[in-house]
Amino acid sequence: MPELAEVDAYRRLAAQALGRRVAEVVAPDAWYLRGGLDAGTLADALVGRRFVDARRVGKLLLLDTDKDGPVLGLRFGMTGRLLVDGTAGVGTLLYSSDADLESWDRFGVRFADGGDLRVRDPRRLGGVELAPAEDRLGPDALTITAEHLIAALGHSQAPLKARMLDQSRMAGVGNLAADEILWRAGLDPGRPAGTLSPAEVARLHEHLVGTLADLIAQGGSHMGDLQSERRPGGTCPQDGAPLVRRTVGGRTTYSCPRHQR
What we know:
It is a single chain. The chain has 261 residues and is of the alpha+beta class. The protein folds into 2 domains: 132 residues, MutM-like, N-terminal (N-terminal domain of MutM-like DNA repair proteins), CATH 3.20.190.10; 118 residues, Helicase, Ruva Protein, domain 3 (Orthogonal Bundle), CATH 1.10.8.50. The chain is built from 6 helices and 11 strands. The strands form 3 sheets. The protein has a 5-stranded antiparallel β-sheet with strand order 1-7-8-5-6, with helices on one face. Strands 2-3-4-9 form a 4-stranded antiparallel β-sheet, covered by helices on one side. A hairpin with a 2-residue loop joins strand 10 and strand 11. Helix 1 crosses helix 6 and helix 5 crosses helix 6. The longest helix has 21 residues. The two termini are 27 Å apart.
């Protein structure tokens, strides 16, 4: 599933689309266009323009256009992949098919030089927006400061993992990354977020930023040390204890009852 690490790979791939004039917008799936957007409006906004920057905030990819044009926002849901000139940003998405079926292409632009940029999404859970509301997202999890993390956790009695998955408070952490971060930090996902001590918040911040950087370098959110044991009957790679499987924040969660407190 595309989490921060995958969307960061898409951002790097999107750099290959910069500076190329958009000749055509291909939007065959009206469901994929969000915020009242339609194919004609999207074409009017993009055709003749060039993308000049590729940015990421959390799991949202942002493509800035020239001539003070609108920002194109791409969300990838659970199964969306970005392709530029036929090359995918990531080779494998966990819980998704990697089949190269053009029938799964939900949105694309063709460039005047003959190349293209496409979003391929089997389950249609992503979406395309113009001028997405970036201010609705919290600080990016990869660069969040300790002070912003304290504010994101607050004094909440909500489970720690649920607070970390709240994109309005901290943008970019997905289910797999959250389990990996909390496992490395030795913190229980179900613990009330507001009960962490200053030392525990500092430890969480260290592992939050460090884990996300590791997952980016290793090629995806499914490349964590815990991942192979995130299954029924799995054991903790650190101390061998049987992992606990439960639902936290509405998401399937694995944690070690021995060292995560």
